[in-house]
Amino acid sequence: MENNKRAVVDRRGFLKLTGVGLSGFVLQPSDQAFASTLGEEEVAILYDASKCIGCRACEEACKECNNLPPEPVHPSDLSAITWNLIKQRKGVGQSEWPFFNHQCMHCTDAACVMVCTTGALYKDKKGFVAVDEDKCNGCGYCTQFCPFGVPDLKDVNLITGEAKVGKCIFCCQNQPQEGVGRVACVEACPTGALTLDWRESQLEVARDRIAQLKADGYSKAMLYGESEAGGLHRLSILLDEPSAYGLPVDPQGPITFSSVWQKIIQPLGEVALGATVLGVIAAFFVTRRNIRMEEVE
Amino acid sequence: MTVRLKGTERDVVTIRWIPKYTTMERLGHWLHTATFVPLAITGLILYVPLLQSLAQGQAGLFVRLVHRITALLFGLLPILYLIIEPRRFIMSIREFLFDKDDIGWVMNAFSYYLLGRHAAMPPQGRFNTGEKMNGLIMCVTWIVLGVTGLVMWFGKGIVPAGFFQWMVLIHDVAMIAAVCMFLVHLFLAVAHPLMWAGLVSMRFGVTSTAYAAEHHARWYYGPKRARQLYEEAKKKAAEASH
User: Fold this and answer.
1) Helix or strand or coil: residue A183?
2) pLDDT tens digits for A60-88?
3) ipTM of the complex model
4) Cβ-count burial of A55 within 10 angstroms (0-12 exposed, 13-18 middle, 19+ buried)?
5) Domain count for chain A
6) What pTM does this model have?
7) I need a labelling partner for A94 at 20 to 30 A (CA). Which of A204, A257, B54, B226 fits?
8) Which residues of B touch A31 (CB under 8 A)?
């Protein structure tokens, strides 16, 4: 009987500790899941498709600056080792500015950051989405939730799941704490198609440029990225519909899905878990008071 | 077996044991538990922000590897059991089917299990309604977690991204349902005084006749006699309340 008593006390202690520990799950705010808002100190790359000659100097500079290995043939899409890529619009002649520079759009409401299980993907205070490769565990959720299909996995082992994410990190190794900073692709661009400045300034420049392009007969000229995905930090001046460049007209779908998952479903799950633990502990004490072991057959 | 409760002759009770689970059933149950627990822990590490530091880098890779290995075992065990004891497996599935007595059990479960009011409970088979509910959740989540997990493992870049996103979400929801049910099951098995024989039967394969008569009357007495006893008990309870 003494042994039984000791066992009961131990169990009670165990349940108390479990309850206290697990209730912390409910109280823990999942701050990484909340999207940031646009700040004044945010920078943006502005890409002007009407100035791009497709020379691929940006691609080369990106590879060199970020120590990315070369690919045997020119890739058709961005990948974990190609973070900057010039593609050509189909059905458009050389004289009609057919090129488009693809890279990470550095969304304000970045789905990749929301779904990252490790915090390896994070928003820098300047607005871009950086990567802490050491933290990445290769889960690859970011690759499936990005509306632009940008993040990719490298060194993948399909069986063990070993992998690392790779995507444009805004040359964050070269970014000073203050000021606009430098990015390799912009510095390499010989025509000024890529520029880097404060985001507000870039928006003004882009609006003026679009007005000019429209006056010059490019009636479909538009700015992509002012409000898409909460506002992009890679703005683009397009001469045609976004779909003509392979860009989603509305990238909001996966972002909304990520938000609902991370901000509603996951916390609700934690509440359900916490409530179950607390309910079980409460039931334990209620049954101990109401049911005597001696009366149990 | 005799048990001395308080040290006097009057408190000596005799327990008669009858077989309830086969060795394979018990082995299957415990191996399933041994894979479910690490699966739940490694899954929660990826789910709960408080545990994020354990999901990072090499530690995170290890967590994901453990999750995959145990997931394979967790998925294969019921199939393996079906191959070893197919007749018993089908019999158990039949016993897990719900009937109208389950409604009466649920109606009375709160006062019975929490307050210890021994009102007449509808007679139960080898598995009572609570065990059936646990079984249902475990079967459904086994299928859902397995399908969504395999898509998440091998479908990245193959299935459409929108489909993958739903798989991740459904995997999460199924995990929460399974873990919540597991916690209730753990409490009833380990800490609930009325359920003391549950753990004994899953450890040693036998249960006491008194426990079987009270909790699994339809299995112990057979359906006819159990129904008769239940009606008598209900009548007595009604008379006592008048």
Assistant:
1) coil
2) 999 999 999 999 999 999 999 999 999 99
3) 0.85
4) middle
5) 2
6) 0.85
7) A204
8) 49
